[in-house]
Design a protein that fits this description.
Elements (H helix, E strand, L loop, with lengths): L24 H26 L5 H17 L7 H20 L2 H18 L6 H9 L1 H26 L4 H21 L2 H23 L3 H18 L26 H26 L10 H26 L10 H33 L3 H26 L3 H21 L2 H14 L6 H5 L8 H4 L8 H28 L6 H16 L6 H19 L1
Length: 539
């Protein structure tokens, strides 16, 4: 049997036409298992994705898809990376069932493909995982082509080669019985009438069953089957190579023509960074900011620009320390300059964190500030990877692959964290301690259902506007959630969200022990008054 077999899932190499591919008994068994798994995957996707009314459906899909793909992948290998990716996917599924979002679904699909790649003994780098996911489209075509060849070998080969086939031994008598039995039925009018009645009812039931599915649903089934076939039997089996991650210029000895330019550049940026950091510490550290201080400009926009500076430093160091520069005998001196500049970059990163904390201390936490903290952390980790690249003489490809991992992991952390709960725990603690500014983040930004329980303690605030406004907001949200719960009951289990159910129960209990507003208008006015008050003072 050729190494490019159906069971191996390799691309059909050589000059052999598709019809010449030979299938072993093991290939036949794997092919039947793949067909069963594809049918189960179509059924799973139809229930949990196509007919899903909420995020619990995709959560169930990812769990079922992991099991089906694990069973269907031949010669799979489970390593620490596979276990890690599966654990990450389980965390995504839990968050989808608690408080789902589109980001979690996107992260779930990426982790699913990365896990499949790791089961195939490949390192799931970000770009390679995307390419692997994309190859499932031509892979599905290859799977169907081989399936067609398998059917030909099983059914029609006996006719072409005059060799006996076990399947023909069953099919031919069955077809003969149907043909001649139909003739004998037609020869008896009473039997025809009896069978016509029974057959008409059967056809009617079949018709009702088939017409309950829309054309789009059928197309969805075909797409799921096609892509699943491509994942189970990919046409590309080798996505990564460790040899491509070592710098080609890491060995030998010769002078680098741009060495002087690189050295002078590093000396220049060291002086520039040192001067700027002195200015940064003099103007923004250990001081009380006056009224009217431009928090947004310094702490928000300024931090973004300094983050860009760190990213540019990462790129510059990566471009300097590559290729022939590693062969220069003066490399140790250039590395010393790089370490000095790196230390200044880490100090600059501390300055960026400080700017963000200034803004957070002023009027609280928000989702975007969490994104900012994760973003600067990703840049810092990316810069640390540059230093590892330099010390180990790795290629630029090695660096890019791992920096994309850092970005992907930051997105994963944001997707699985209960972000609104964390930010409003901080905001509520500040408000109750006497700093009322963070209330603006509650009134001017959307709040997830799972964070509403955190806001309950604000109904005991010493500020009557905050106390009444938050109570009004929570009552408005409770009424809305009760309506959503009634609609969700008719939508099925896929619409269930743990955070909404918990919040609804907690707010209902709190409403029973609190004094309600006299009217709907009083409730609305209290909420509007708090929004106006917070916007005017701290936005």
């Amino acid at each position: 049997m050729s190494e490019h077999s159906y069971g191996d899932g390799m691309i059909n190499g050589g000059d052999e036409p598709p019809g010449s591919v030979q299938f072993s008994d093991a290939d036949m068994v794997r092919g039947r298992v793949a067909l069963i798994l594809i049918a189960l995957m179509v059924l799973l996707a139809d229930i949990t994705i196509y007919h899903a009314a909420g995020f619990s459906g995709p959560a169930a899909f990812f769990i079922g898809a992991v099991i089906l793909l694990y069973v269907g992948i031949p010669r799979r290998s489970v390593c620490w990376l596979t276990v890690t990716l599966t654990s990450m996917l389980a965390m995504i599924c839990f968050r989808l069932a608690c408080n789902g979002s589109a980001l979690q679904i996107a992260m779930g699909f990426w982790l699913l493909h990365a896990m499949v790649l790791s089961l195939r003994r490949q390192t799931p780098f970000v770009v390679e995982t995307v390419i692997f996911a994309a190859q499932s489209i031509p892979g599905g075509y290859d799977f169907l082509t081989r399936l067609n060849q398998r059917v030909h070998d099983s059914v029609l080969k006996a006719t072409d080669t005059r060799q006996p086939s076990p399947l023909i031994n069953v099919v031919l008598p069955a077809v003969s019985a149907i043909l001649f039995g139909g003739i004998f039925v037609m020869a008896n009018p009473d039997v025809v009438r009896w069978i016509s009645g029974r057959l008409g009812n059967f056809v009617q039931h079949i018709r009702q069953f088939l017409f309950q599915f829309s054309y789009l649903e059928v197309v969805f089934w075909m797409a799921v089957a096609w892509l699943t076939g491509g994942l189970l039997r990919p046409i590309i089996t080798t996505m990564t190579s460790d040899n491509s991650e070592r710098d080609a210029g890491a060995w030998g000895s010769e002078s680098a023509p741009l060495f002087d330019a690189f050295r002078n550049t590093l000396l220049t940026v060291i002086v520039l960074f040192g001067a700027y950091l002195a200015f940064e510490f003099y103007t923004l550290w250990f001081r009380t900011f006056p009224k009217g201080f431009h928090y947004s400009g310094y702490a928000h926009q300024g931090a973004a620009w300094l983050t860009v500076a760190l990213a540019m430093a990462t790129v510059m160091l990566s471009l300097i320390f590559r290729g022939i520069i590693f062969c220069d005998h003066r490399l140790p001196g250039l590395k010393r300059l790089a370490w000095i500049w790196s230390a200044l970059n880490f100090i600059l990163a501390i300055a960026v964190y400080h700017r963000l904390l200034i803004y957070i201390e002023y009027n609280g936490m928000t989702r975007m500030r969490v994104v900012g903290l994760l973003g600067i952390t990703s840049v810092v980790l990316g810069f640390a990877l540059v230093l590892i690249k330099i010390s180990r003489r790795r290629a630029f490809l090695w660096l890019i692959r791992r920096q994309l991992w850092v970005v992907g992991f930051a997105a994963f952390v944001y997707a699985v964290l209960p972000v609104d709960v964390l930010i409003h725990q901080y905001n509520v603690s500040q408000i109750l301690s006497g700093n009322h500014a963070p209330v603006v983040q509650i009134t001017q930004h959307p709040v997830d259902d799972e964070a509403l329980q955190v806001l309950l303690s604000l109904t005991h605030s010493n500020d009557p506007r905050i106390r009444a406004g938050i109570q009004a907001m929570l009552e408005i949200r409770l009424i809305a959630m009760q309506g959503e719960a009634s609609r969700a009951e008719t939508s099925g289990w896929t619409a269930w969200q743990k955070s909404s159910a918990d919040a609804r129960m907690m707010l209902s209990a709190a409403a029973e022990s609190s004094t309600p507003f006299d009217s709907i208008n009083d409730r609305r006015d209290a909420w509007i008054e708090l929004q106006t008050y917070s916007f005017a003072n701290w936005w």
